[in-house]
Write a structure and sequence with these properties.
Aspartate Aminotransferase, domain 1; 2 domains; alpha/beta; 15 strands; 12 helices; 3-stranded antiparallel β-sheet; 384 residues
């Protein structure tokens, strides 16, 4: 439940930036499944993992899913399976560092590309500008849960150039484009189940694909490179990337809530859209007609001249509204850890990273919480 805070002479309920939702019956079901795993002694790569993989694949209209320890591991495993080592992999500059970390861990060189301002995602134009003679793959990131309408055209460009398209769908559980789910446009899609995500397993990730060979490679890589679970014959330079049965139980139970979570988040976003229709302070990132966002993040651009830190502090201190973290505030080519691979300005990525905010969205957000956010935004806007 939201906390209370004093703002001036009054107390208000605090609207948190995000909230993990597990109703009583879901916690009881997780406890039952974990108890069964403990009773059986099958604590990894058991029945819970297989059921979670099957359910996640079905939810995203794909034949294969492989559960792993994190979204980062999922990207690295896919890139290792594609043998990109020694070559270039294009990633957007406005993504989480883990996207590029996975590229480097897989033995490839990250090439940072600019993005389209309307979607905050790679486009045919920005990828074309970043191509090199040794480009092996492109990783498109569905920022905030929005699958860009340019994704099929980007896949076509990659196919034409003999390059592989991989989807970093860490934000995009249940998001679609033309009714096709995130994860179904590239050779593989990767998801994260970190606690902030729409669906969580506590920690964990998932690889989805239509490619049986890639599925088999991923199965080997995640289990120390072994030819099979019960063997000690190692065929790949793998790692301990197995998902535990405890995490699989949590993820499986949470996944069953995905349709209702999407409905709630869509409703919250509709309220925000209406409230910001004539705003002089915030301009929402528009969701194209063919796209259906899961609203992992509700992204809006600040008007020029407004200081983001001051704006967020005012909402928190005066109205108890804490905005969600950015996606992302510092582009990768400005991150010290990637200085070796930084090459020139990327103006659109730099601007969207600097100018956007994310309004609170929860999978069980109440009407009162939405009204509090809308009222706070109206009050702040009226005094600008």
């Amino acid at each position: 439940m939201p906390g209370r805070r004093t703002t001036g002479s009054r107390e208000v309920d605090e609207v948190p930036p995000a909230r993990v939702v597990f109703p009583d019956e879901d916690r009881a079901e997780v406890a039952r499944m974990v108890d069964e795993a403990l009773r059986s002694g099958a604590l990894t790569l058991g029945a819970n993992t297989r059921e979670f993989e099957d359910a996640f694949a079905a939810a995203h209209l794909l034949p294969y899913a492989v559960a792993v320890t994190s979204g980062t591991a999922a990207i690295e495993i896919v890139l290792r399976s594609l043998d990109v080592g020694g070559r270039d992999v294009i990633v957007p500059a406005n993504t989480f560092a883990a996207t590029a970390f996975a590229v480097i861990a897989a033995g490839a060189r990250p090439v940072f590309a600019d993005v389209d301002a309307a979607t905050m995602a790679l486009s045919v134009e920005t990828v074309s500008a970043a191509l090199t003679p040794t480009t092996a793959a492109v990783v498109i990131v569905h920022i905030g849960g929005l699958v860009s309408p340019d994704t099929p055209a980007l896949r076509a460009l990659c196919d034409e150039r003999g390059i592989v398209l991989v989807e970093d769908a860490a934000h995009a559980h249940g998001s679609t484009l033309d009714s096709w789910p995130a994860g179904s446009f590239g050779v593989a899609g990767t998801f994260s189940f970190y606690p902030t995500k729409v669906i969580t397993s506590g920690e964990g990730g998932m690889i989805v694909t239509t490619d049986e060979r890639l599925r088999d490679e991923a199965l080997a890589f995640r289990d120390q490179g072994k030819a099979s679970f019960g063997a000690n014959l190692h065929t790949h330079l793998g790692y301990a990337w197995r998902m535990s049965e405890v995490h699989a139980a949590i993820g499986l139970v949470h996944l069953r809530r995905l349709p209702e979570f999407l409905a709630v988040r869509t409703g919250v976003a509709a309220r925000y859209d209406e409230a910001l229709r004539d705003s002089a302070v915030l301009t929402p990132l528009a969701v194209p007609p063919a796209s259906r966002s899961n609203y992992y993040k509700y992204v809006a651009m600040l008007a020029d001249g407004l200081d983001r830190a001051e704006f967020k502090a005012e909402l928190a201190e005066r109205f108890g509204v804490r905005l969600s973290g950015e996606v992302y505030e510092t582009p990768l080519h400005h991150q010290p850890v990637f200085a070796e691979w930084a090459d020139g300005p990327l103006p659109v990525a730099e601007r969207v990273c600097a100018r956007h905010v994310c309004l609170p969205v929860h999978s069980d957000m109440t009407e009162a919480e939405v009204a509090q956010v809308v009222s706070a935004l109206a009050d702040v806007g009226a005094h600008r």
